[in-house]
Amino acid sequence: MRSRFPLLLSGLAFAAAHLAFGQGTGMSLPKTVEAGSAFSIQSTGTGKATLYIIGPEQVLKRDVQLGQAAFFPAGSLYNAGRYTAVLAQESSTQNGSLDVLPASKPVDLSFFAKPSRLPIGLHDGITGTVYLFDTYHNLIPSSMPVSFELSTPSGTVQKRTVATREGAAWTAMDSTSQQGVDRFVVRIGDVSSTRIIGQVPGDPCGLKMNARQSGQQVELVTDPVRDCSGNAIPDGTIVTFTATYKGTQSTIDQPLKHGIADATMRVHAGATLSVASGVVMGNQIGWNK
Amino acid sequence: MTTRRFLIALYAGFTAISCSMAAQVAVRVEPMTLQTTRPLPDQTRAAVIRDYLHAWQGFQAALEQNRPELLEADFVGTAKDKIADTIRQQGVLGIRTRYQDRSHDLQVLFYSPDGMSIELTDKVEYDVQLVDHDKVIATQRESARYLVVLAPAEVRWRIRVFQSTHD
User: Fold this and answer.
1) B35 — contact with chain A (CB < 8 Å)?
2) How many domains does one find in chain B?
3) Integer Cα distance of A45 and A26 in angstroms
4) Is B127 on the interface with A (CB under 8 A)?
5) The domain A108-200: what is its CATH number?
6) Considering only CB atoms, which chain B residues are within 8 Å of A129?
7) Contact B164 A82 (CB under 8 A)
8) How far apart are CA B160 and CA A142, in angstroms?
9) With an 8 Å Cβ cutoff, is B149 touching chain A?
10) Is residue A137 predicted with pLDDT exceeding 90?
11) Is the minimum CB–CB distance between B74 and chain A shorter than 8 Å?
């Protein structure tokens, strides 16, 4: 089917069509129409014809009386785009083009915020992208200011105002030093959209353990594990205790419970005890008992 | 890769596709004017443009055959819904429309910082032919500037916004 169309276009039918289009100007088209607005198309001549308005976004077909205006009420043509209008009679056709423009007032927006969860203290770690649409979900290409606002439970607010370009705007915000749930809001006029961003503690900071004899073994206990801003590291985070003695190592992985981790190990005198969580190293203790 | 080499490589690839359509489509890719700090890798740019041009074939076939399911591979969301509605309107009215793109002049405008959307413009020339109950009513050459937003899907970029604009 596809291969027949180019042949049609390049053949006599195409040439004939162009000749027909060149005859007269029997149709007066508005150059532009705002999406959803009423409009009319005036024709000249006598008799009946069929008026087509076609585009990938929408098609209309109407029987018309030549010499009268064909009136299209509000809501007839609402998808923005380039349309071809064809006024067809039995023996001839006239055609032209008109553009349907998006309404200027945004009533809908698509807001993408990433990520939904991130560690505290990341510069430009949170990004937001917005696209503006009119009531018929046409992208609004004209530039207009959009406000982004990121607020934390503690009341800290970051604000940015960005002008859209071709319907899109974006911003980047810093995650703050406090864990919790942030509200990321984009607003234009009375239209807004909110996304929730979870800020979680960063890596452990100043990881420290203490060791004490417990019978034949040694009991190792960390201090409450926090990030560098003082936020408690979540329970379940793995802490690794290691005892090194004459080139051999024994390790125990323990999850944080109530903010601390503990383990009991059999340790030789002269061993070195260390603690770590992920890539973060804590203190070392030389065990000489 | 320089813009010129990229254009040639892309055009060579697209010419191969076009040969099977018995129609040559000229494709030009303008230098990017990105309004984001996220760099757009050449491979990503090539994939986006390849998928966008492929989508033209899908939408042409869908509107010519009045088969909305042909949009599935290349369109998503509002763009798919709007063209699918057009196809349903065509079916009700007994008409079909044949679109044949002649040239594309593409420019990537925006790559979102999260990598989840790309916006481009396409100054496209195309022929549109109106067929009413199997009778060719008219054919017209059109030029329009399309504003396109694509989003990554499983194996390709799919069109989320496909809208011609007043230039």
Assistant:
1) yes
2) 1
3) 7
4) yes
5) 2.60.40.1930
6) 112-114, 116-117
7) yes
8) 19
9) yes
10) yes
11) no
Q: How far apart are CA A136 and CA A150, in angstroms?
A: 29
Write out B93-144 in H/E/C secondary structure. Answer: HCEEEEEEEEEEEEEEEEECCCCCCEEEEEEEEEEEEEEECCEEEEEEEEEE
On average, the pLDDT of chain A sits at 88
What CATH topology corresponds to A209-287? Immunoglobulin-like (2.60.40)
Q: Which CATH architecture has domain A4-101?
A: Sandwich (2.60)
Domain ranges of chain A: 4-101, 108-200, 209-287
Contact B147 A13 (CB under 8 A): no
Q: For tokens 């929730």, what's the residue?
A: A196
Residue B139 domain-assigned (yes or no): no
A230 touches chain B (CB under 8 A): no
Judge whether B134 lies within some domain.
Answer: no
Whether residue B21 is predicted with pLDDT greater than 80 in this model: the reply is: no
Question: Where does the pLDDT of residue A18 fall: very low under 50, low under 70, confident under 90, or very high at 90 and above?
Answer: very low
Q: Quick check: B23 pLDDT over 70? A: no
State the Cα–Cα distance between residues A154 and A151, nearest whole angstrom: 8
Cβ separation of B163 and A1 shorter than 8 Å?
A: no
Could you tell me the pLDDT band of residue A216, with boundaries at 50, 70 and 90? Answer: confident
Mutate to test the interface with B, among A5, A124, A160 (most CBs of B within 10 A): A5
Token output for A38: 């009423």
Q: ipTM of the predicted structure? A: 0.86
Q: Is A228 on the interface with B (CB under 8 A)?
A: no
pLDDT number for residue A20 = 33
